[in-house]
Structure formats: C-alpha cells, structure tokens
Amino acid sequence: MLQLLNLIVKFKDYAALTLLCIISLSLISIGDVSKIGGYRAFVVGTIGWLEEAFSWVPNPDALKTENRAVRELNLYLSSELMKSRKALSENRNLRELLEFKEGADYNLISAEVIGKSVIELREYITINKGSNDGIDRGMSVRTDAGLTGVVVVVEENYSLIETLNNRQIKISAKIERTGIDGILIWSGSKYFNMMNIPKSFDIKVGDELITSNYSRKYPPDLPIGKVVKVDEDKSSLFHKIYVEPFVSFSTLEQVFVIQFVNDPERLELIEKMEERLRLLKK
Amino acid sequence: MNRTKKKINHGFQRYVVYAIVAILLSLIQFSLLNFVEVQGITPDLLLILCVWIAIREGRFTGIIAGFLIGITLDIVSFDLVGINAFTKTIAGFVAGSFYQEGKEQLILHGLKFLLIVFISSFIHNLIYFFFYIKLSDITFVSFFLKYGIAFSFYTTVFAVIPMLIKRKERII
Questions:
Q1: What is the mean pLDDT of residues B136-144?
Q2: Band of pLDDT at residue B50, cut at 50, 70 and 90
Q3: Is A196 among the domain residues?
Q4: A21–B132 C-beta distance less than 8 A
Q5: What pLDDT was estimated at residue A30?
Q6: Chain A residues contacting B via beta carbons under 8 Å
Q7: Is pLDDT at B156 greater than 60 in this prediction?
C-alpha cells in the first residue's frame, strides 16, 4: 500500500492527468447537464450588464451590411405586400368555404441585441429582455428575415440566445414547395446542410425551407433559408443539400422572441415514448 | 518558522490572484472578444492563463489549474460539459512539461513563452475541435490550418500582452 502511495506521489503528474482526463471524459459522456442553469443565469446577468456597457462601440461593417439588407428587404416586401393582400382575401374566402380555423399567430416580444459571444465554434447573443418581459427558456427567436435561434438562459432583464449556427443544433425543417421533411444542421461554414433526403426526392436550387410541424423546439412554418446547391454524390443514396439561411447572423441588431413553447403534453408523450424505447433496448 | 509561514501566505495569495484573473478573463472572453473576432476566430485567453500558471508553478499545478479553469468554462459557457476540462487539462500538462525550476521568470518574459502558448494551444485546439468538426465535412489540411494553426496563432498573438507586461516589470 505504502509502495503504491509512493509510486503515485512519484508520478503524481501522470496520476493527476489520468484521473482528471477520466473525470472529464465521463462528464462528456453524460452529455446533457442542464441542471447547472443557475450558474449560467448568473453569468448571463453579469455578461448582459457588461455588454450593455460596451454596446455604444459601433461596428461600421455590420451597419453597412445591415443597411443594404434592409433596403433589399424593403423592396422585396413592398411587392410581397401587394401579393399578400390579395392572397389574404382569397384565403379568407376559401377558409370560410372549408370552415378551417385561422392559423396560429404568436405574440412577439421585440428585443435589442446587446452582445454577442463567440466561443470557439458556437455563437450566442444576449438580448435586453428577460423573464420580466415574459420571456421563457425554450422560446424561439426570429428576425424579419427568419428563424434565428432559441432562448437558452433567462435572467430578469437579459436572455441568452443560442443562434442556429451552432454545431449542437438540429432543426426539423421542410421544403416549402414539396413538403419534404429533413434535419438541418450547421456545416461550420456559412451554409447549413439538410440531411437524409433520398436522391429520388425532388429538390431544386431556390427551394425555400421552413420549420416543420415535427419540430419539438420551434413553432411550425418559420422561414429558415433557401437551397443554394444540391450535390449528387454517386457513392451516397442521399442528396447533399446546402442551405443558405435568410438571417445574417453577423449583423443581428433587433430580434423578436416568439412567445411559444411547445405543448408540454406533446413533449411529455414523446419523452415517455423515448423512455420506453430506451428500456426496450436495454 | 516565520519565513515558512510567510512563504505559504505568499503562495496562497498568488492562487487567489489566479482565481480572480480567471474570473475576469472569463467575463472578457464571453462579452468583449467579439470585437476582435476575425473569420470566427477568437483568442483563448483562459488557455494563456493556464499556460502561465503551468510555467510559473509547475506541471502538477498546471494540470489542476487547467482542469479547474476548463470545468468552470464548461459550466458557464453552455458547452458540452467536460470538453474544456479535458482539453485544458492536457494543455496544462503540455505547458507544464516546459517548466524549469528557477527559470520560471526567464521563460515568462521571453519568446519561449509564446512558443509554449502556441504548442499548448495547437494541441488543445486539435483535440477540442475534433469533438465538434466532422472530418468528413472538411479536408484534413483545412482542419489543420484553420483549427490548428490559425486559432493557435491568434491566441499566441494575445499572449504577447502578458509577456510584455512581465518584461516591463522586470525592467522597472
């Protein structure tokens, strides 16, 4: 025993390294440790305060890009408005004929982006609204262009948003034109990749993507982006689809938090089902 | 006896300073580093601190400091818990391997410090990004250049600041 202790003391560097690496790897394998939200909420409050203090520092490049985008959007919207008015009246008439319910409208909370945190390959933004304004964890965030992210931590006056350009995020999306569903993940560059779409499915460059009804995280029918490239890999059975998001993540200034959290009953049902499957696997 | 007590107190104070610096650097890392972001690349200030401690205090302390800094970062950064602890523990080990008793100060204000930061950062980044990047998505060369070289180089550039401060202290 004494010899063993002596040995450990002698090679304490290696012993410490091995032990700490094992602890770290065990933590990685556990994965979701969402119970530490309290610490994180405290950090968000402090960071929010700091970022607000430095928010006066301008970013000319971001402003220039934002201005150009707004002008283009304005032009596009004015023509869309005309079409939309016409479509709305047609839609109302048709709904009356079919006695359909009106589509769900969500309450939006406007917020300003006061800071951005880039931690290695993950981006987070801090907004100046929190639980006092009715924001809750899990609510989706969008801009006028489209889906931006999800609220991950809420403090009284600040919230932290995990943007879509994040390796951990998977979005259940569908092609608006055809209704084909798939999973969208960030490729690490400026594009996203839509996964698991067989080659036999009809996908075209220019197709627009929206959030799917299957999504547990995001409300349905939010615009995400458009297909810019479809690669045909001969060795694969699936399309390799590149999607450009509508939102410019580098120039975010104003966002809207959607007061929508998925139906807890539905989530509970899915969790129960997954638990059963896990037990069956065991 | 008194001298020993003084020495222990002095050592304790140094660790308190390290903890305070770590908290301050975490806040800067989160809130202000987007001002110096280039093509999604930001320096890792906490890694510099980890290397600093390892060179100043030795390999064992470097490993422990790396783990503690990493786990704190994991908790507050919404990252996969354990990943920063793992990579920074290894970075502390690598940096601590360059520890030379009696020559700590000489290393800290010399170019050798930058070299150690670069090597530790390089190894840290390769392991860290290995967890995040699907190698099938990018070529090994671009993985090596961007996540290995570019990230490490940018961190090394920021390591010049503590090195220069240390150098100035020595001149004064």
A1: 69
A2: very high
A3: yes
A4: no
A5: 75
A6: 12-13, 16-17, 20-21, 23-31, 33, 36, 39-40, 43, 46-47, 50-51, 54, 57, 115-122, 124, 152-153, 160, 162, 167-168, 187-188
A7: yes
**Residue at A217 is within a domain:** yes
Our CA-based measurement puts residue B92 at a distance from the nearest CA of chain A, in whole angstroms, of: 9
On whether the CB atoms of residues B50 and B155 are closer than 8 A, the answer is no
**Average of per-residue pLDDT values in chain A:** 79
Q: β-strand A108-119 against A254-258: which pairing, if any? A: antiparallel
Find, among B106, B128, B114, B124, the residue nearest to B157 by Cα.
Answer: B114
Q: B50 or A68: whose pLDDT is higher?
A: B50
Q: Is B49 helix (H, G, I), strand (E, B) or coil?
A: helix
Q: What's the pLDDT score for residue A239?
A: 82
Residue A193 forms part of a structural domain: yes
**Residue B168 region by backbone torsions, left for phi larger than 0, else alpha for psi between -120 and 50, else beta:** alpha
How many whole angstroms separate alpha carbon A114 and alpha carbon B152?
Answer: 28
| CB contact set of B59 (below 8 Å; sequence gap of 6+) | A13, B92, B93, B96, B97, B99
Read off the pTM: 0.61
For residues A268 and A279, the answer to whether their CB atoms sit within 8 Å is: no
How far is the alpha carbon of A111 from chain B, nearest alpha carbon, in Å? 18
ipTM of the complex: 0.83
The CATH code of the domain that includes B104 is 1.10.1760.20
Structural domain count, chain B: 1
The domain in which residue A204 lies consists of 170-250
Judged by DSSP in three states, B172 sits in coil
| Nearest chain B residue (CA) to A249 | B40
pLDDT of residue B115: 93
Query: Which residue of B60, B81, B83 is in closest CB contact with A12?
Result: B60
Look up tokens 């608006």; give the residue: A176
What is the per-residue burial (b if ≥16 Cβ within 10 Å, else e) of A241-255? bbbebbbbbbbbeeb
Residue A265 included in any domain: no
Tell me if A160 sits within 8 A of A41, measured CB to CB: no
Total number of domains in chain A: 1
Picking from B81, B110, B86, the residue whose alpha carbon sits closest to that of residue B98 is B110
Q: Kindly state the average pLDDT of the residues B67-89.
A: 84
Nearest CA-CA distance, residue A171 and chain B, Å? 17
| Residue range(s) defining the domain that contains residue B77 | 2-34+42-171
pLDDT over threshold 70, residue B135: no
